[in-house]
Amino acid sequence: MRPAVASGEENWASARTMAARRGARATPTSGLPGWVVGLSIFASLVAALVVVPALVLVLRPRFLEPRKGEPSPPKEVPVLEETREAEVVS
After folding, report:
1. CA dihedral of 70, 75, 80, 84, whole degrees rounded to 10
2. ∠ at Cα 87 (81, 90), nearest 5°?
């Protein structure tokens, strides 16, 4: 004969069995509140948009610097007189 109240382990096993029969699956965030997931996404965006560029500006890694002997890009693109006149007319 079964006891009237099942132990915690039996309750957990029966709950998993019933969930499996219903077709329910556990998801990685099933136990987390929604605000924790939102905070995690926000922190990732801040790191990608603020922290990483700041580190690049401060540390100046070598792979981002131009190589010696390579021409540097022009500072200003020359504008032809015909182009200026076309912009004024239109």
Report:
1. 150
2. 140
One digit per residue, the tens of pLDDT, for the chain of length 90 reads 555 555 555 666 676 666 667 766 656 656 778 888 899 999 999 999 999 999 999 999 988 888 888 877 777 777 667 766 666 655
Q: Which residue in the block uniquely carries the two structure tokens 């020359």?
A: 78
d(CA 55, CA 71): 26
**How far, in Å, are 35, 73, 74, 76, 89 from residue 83 at the CA level?**
54, 22, 19, 15, 10
